Amino acid sequence: MVSIILKRGKEKAVLQRHPWVFSGALQQVNGKPENGQLVSVLAFDKQFLAYGHYNAQSRVAIRLLEWDEAHTPNEAWWRKRIQSAIANRSHILTPKTNTCRLVYSESDYLPGLIVDKYADYLSVQILTTGIERNKTIIINELQKLTGAKGIYDKSDLTARAHDGLEASSGILWGEFPPEYVEVMENGIKYHINIAEGQKSGFYCDQRHNRNNVAAYLKGKTVLDCFSYSGGFSLNALAAGAAQVTAVDSSALAIETLQKNIVLNAFDVTKTKTIHSDVNKQLRLFKEQEVVFDAIILDPPKYAPSRSALDKAARAYKDLNRMAMQLLPTGGLLATFSCSGAVDMETFKQIIAWAALDAGKEIQIIQQLHQPEDHPVRVSFTEGEYLKGLLLRIV
Ligand code: SAH
Q1: How far apart are CA 361 and CA 329, in angstroms?
Q2: How far is the CA of 228 from the centre of ligand 1 (A)?
Q3: Helix (H) or strand (E) holding 131
């Protein structure tokens, strides 16, 4: 096996089990490894540190897989890692929930692999050359463990470009999923368009938060901003909300949400959908002096990296300020950020500024996070991205 020696001092992060080795940390590559090839990583004094996947094109030159020298990642190793990721989720899948994330990349010690389950179908994102090279074993094991009817490749992501990979999508195993796959989450049914939908098809990371927030919405008028296929709207209706208004700029999202209301036999007269830009719509509501009892803000990632933090902070602040202005005393705001670069403390600070600008006094009544099928490894806190606050206007 090709070995790579790190510069003096660069072993520290590896010993702390961080799974990334940046290209600047490499002292010497012994051989000519191909992209995605398994290599062993040695400290400057030649002591074994870990096994990983090498990629000459990526800023992350080695993605570490295994720290025990006796456990060389072979076929049995791959199968075991997938088995353990899936076994850890077995209790999430119940008669009321047949969708969740089965594999979450570095957090499941499988860097570059994301697998989401949608009833009988799996949606897979392969983000690295290392995972590409082991695709056959991975797909076989996933099929064996889940009995999936079809496994769909949804790797059309810019992230792949970092590893020199082209976007790719299509069927990897079995049947092509139907245009709309029906899934259930917390007893609520959703149509999911795996091939055309956003991300891998659905945002299963909001499963608990949808439930938590809905518990406050009985009899309330609710504005669900960035609704996508209606995760928060449908939970609000199930909890007895008086009226729900959903806003999203994607026509497919609005169309899917409307289908989902019918699918669950909810009262269509209680729901209004608006195909528009949220910022524009919030301004319009302010001009029209429309108010709501509760607002949900679940925007896309505003800060894709740390360098975008300042701009993103302003965007989050403006968005939250505008929403707060539509809420009376006692009103509720469930506000989220899925930017990894914005940590909870920073997010709270942004919200505090928004409240000052809006002239509102607010209380945090719940702090919300990504669910357990998106675990956070203590040695890889980069895996923590979703945070939310449930606020009350006082
Ligand atoms: N709350 C959703 C997930 C939201 S994902 C759920 O529970 O499933 C973010 C959504 O924001 C996407 O559907 C995207 O189409 C929408 N979006 C992005 N920018 C927008 C904008 N400026 N105005 C309105 N919607 C926007």
Answers
A1: 9
A2: 5
A3: helix 129-133
248 lines ligand 1 (CB under 6 A): yes
The superfamily (CATH) of domain 203-393 is Vaccinia Virus protein VP39 (3.40.50.150)
In which residue ranges of the chain is CATH 3.30.750.80 found? 75-181
- Tens digits of residue pLDDT in 145-180: 999 999 999 987 777 888 888 888 899 999 999 999
**Residue 94: enclosing H or E segment and its boundaries?**
none
User: Measured from the CB, is residue 278 less than 6 Å from ligand 1?
Assistant: yes
Mean pLDDT by 10 residues, the chain (394 residues): 97 98 97 96 98 96 98 98 98 97 97 96 95 97 98 84 86 95 97 81 94 98 97 98 98 95 97 98 98 98 89 97 98 97 97 98 98 97 96 98
Candidate of 118, 189, 206, 226 to mutate for ligand 1, largest count of ligand atoms within 8 Å of Cβ: 226
Sequence letter at residue 119 = A
| CATH 2.30.130.10 domain locations along the chain | 3-66
CATH code of 3-66, in short, is 2.30.130.10
